[in-house]
Specification:
With 284 residues, the protein is of the alpha+beta class. It has three domains: 57 residues, no CATH class; 158 residues; 37 residues. Helix content is 20%, strand content 30%. It is built from five helices and 13 strands. The strands form four sheets. Strands 2-1-5-6 form a four-stranded antiparallel sheet, with no helix packed on it. The protein has a four-stranded antiparallel sheet with strand order 9-8-11-12. Helix 4 packs antiparallel against helix 5. The radius of gyration is 27 Å and the shape is elongated.
């Protein structure tokens, strides 16, 4: 309706001409009457195409009981293709060095259309500040101040399983970004194909490929070599509180150890950070 309320079927208008109905026009050449589904309070119809094309849809509501407005949108029909992404530990690809796959370091891989804008306001780190609560929640005086916002940007994604993710794409030629993500949640399934999984408020994402040029819509397998820093750089930010604690303790102890000489200080530093890595606080 013009006031934003949903249009329901009016069964009291028995005259076909005056009965409440919603008509769907395709490219202003074909019209279809939508069917009202009382259980969902929705108007439904089925359309299909055997071509890759953009179709203009015009929804026209007609009723003696409602003051209605029309709505126009576009639907895209595409042949899907798949990019299988495999991530390996290392800085580059060489033929004489044994490679090792990343397995459990992240949960999801997602791709998005490359954004040519350089505005800082387009960055997720500025649009969603909820990660600040996780960074500083260890401080006794800190109070959670940010609410996680739903990320509804168009996203193509897949779960990273057994060393690979198979992502379903639709547009080529096109430039894409590739990002890694985890939210430390297992056992739940994200149902929305076109938004990234958001099973909890806190998650980390790391954009590892800022711009990938995909020239044709064909199934492709990519091997991507990433350093440990590229995989864990956002996780480092998430755990900055632990890092601060590690260095504070190290600094205090060093004031005592250095009195025994520089050799003792070096030995203590190596042993200290090795221990911190073993218990999972330090990542390097």
């Amino acid at each position: 309706m013009a006031n934003g309320s949903p249009i329901e079927e009016n069964i009291t208008d028995y005259d076909v001409v005056n009965r409440t109905r919603v008509v769907l026009d395709l490219n202003a050449t074909h019209s279809y009457n939508l069917t009202y589904v009382d259980a969902d309070g929705a108007w439904e119809g089925l359309i299909s195409s055997n071509e890759s094309e953009d179709v203009t849809l015009i929804f026209k509501a007609n009723s003696m009981s409602y003051k209605c407005i029309n709505a126009t949108t576009t639907i895209k029909f595409r042949d899907a293709f798949y990019y299988t992404l495999r991530f390996y530990k290392g800085a580059n690809m060489t033929t004489d060095v044994k490679t090792q796959s990343y397995k459990n370091e992240f949960q999801y891989v997602y791709m998005r259309f490359y954004n040519t804008s350089t505005s800082y306001t387009d960055s997720t780190i500025f649009r969603d500040m909820s990660y600040m609560d996780r960074v500083f929640r260890w401080l006794p005086w800190y109070e959670a101040s940010f609410t996680a916002k739903a990320d509804d940007e168009l996203t193509f994604w897949d779960k990273y399983d057994d060393g690979e993710a198979r992502i379903k794409l639709y547009e080529a030629p096109r430039n894409y970004t590739i990002s890694l993500m985890t939210d430390d949640t297992y056992g739940l399934t994200w149902e929305d194909e076109f938004t990234r999984p958001q099973l909890q408020d806190y998650s980390w994402q790391s954009k590892v490929i800022p711009k990938l040029k995909i020239s044709s819509a064909k199934d492709t397998t990519l091997s991507i070599y990433l350093s440990r820093w590229e995989v864990h750089k956002f996780l480092f930010l998430m755990n900055i509180g632990y890092w601060l604690l590690v260095f504070v303790i190290w600094g205090i102890l060093m004031m005592v150890i250095t009195k025994a000489g520089w050799k003792a200080a070096i030995g203590f530093t190596i042993g200290y950070f090795t221990f911190m890595k073993m218990i999972g606080i330090a990542i390097f």
